[in-house]
Amino acid sequence: MELKKLKNSDFTEEAEILKILGHPIRLKIVCGLIEQSLCVNDIGDCLGEPQPKISQHLALLRAKGIVKAEREGVNIKYRVVHPLVIKIIKLVEREKLKE
């Protein structure tokens, strides 16, 4: 794509998504939620992070429409719902497999 054409394009949403995914913990959370839904405690256990820290990151991801919370019995499970984020994470995972 030519730079001249990009000048008039709005990349605000894409820039915001990349900024949010720029935090290592949030990136790990999103990578883990691509293939499965998990609750806060499961995410915290997998990452070795305290539940309050995971909850803060999930709140931001929810506010930006990247993940969605769904009640399953007594648990609330999270999953990635943003199509662009899914594409980005699959690309990142594919590149990591090459290493």
Features:
99 residues, alpha+beta, Arc Repressor Mutant, subunit A, 3-stranded antiparallel beta sheet, 6 helices, 65% helix
What does this molecule look like?
It contains six helices and three strands. A hairpin with a 2-residue loop joins strand 2 (67-72) and strand 3. The chain is of the alpha+beta class. It is globular. The model has no long low-confidence stretch (mean pLDDT 92). It has one domain (23-97): Orthogonal Bundle (Arc Repressor Mutant, subunit A), CATH 1.10.10.10. It has a three-stranded antiparallel β-sheet with strand order 1-3-2. Residues 6-99 form the HTH arsR-type domain. One of its GO terms (molecular function) is DNA-binding transcription factor activity. InterPro entries: ArsR-like_HTH, HTH_ArsR_DNA-bd_dom, Metal_resp_trans_reg, WH-like_DNA-bd_sf, WH_DNA-bd_sf.
Layout: helices, strands, pairs:
Blueprint: H1 3-7, H2 12-21, H3 24-35, E1 38-39, H4 40-47, H5 51-63, E2 67-72, E3 75-80, H6 83-98
Antiparallel strand pairs: 1-3, 2-3
Organism: Kryptobacter tengchongensis
Domain HTH arsR-type: 6-99
Keywords: DNA-binding, Transcription, Transcription regulation
Straight-line distance between termini: 29 Å
Cross-sheet strand order for the largest sheet: 1-3-2
Total number of helical segments?
Answer: 6
The CATH first-level class comes to Mainly Alpha
Query: What structural class do you assign from the helix and strand content?
Result: alpha+beta
CATH superfamily: Winged helix-like DNA-binding domain superfamily/Winged helix DNA-binding domain
Low-pLDDT segments, ≥5 res: none
Helix content: 55-70%
Q: How many strands?
A: 3
Specify the overall morphology: globular
Number of domains: 1
CATH topology annotation: Arc Repressor Mutant, subunit A
Largest sheet: 3 strands, antiparallel
In terms of DSSP E residues, the strand content is: 5-15%
* Radius of gyration using CA atoms only: 15 Å
CATH architecture: Orthogonal Bundle
Output mean pLDDT: 92
Q: Write down the secondary-structure element order.
A: HHHEHHEEH
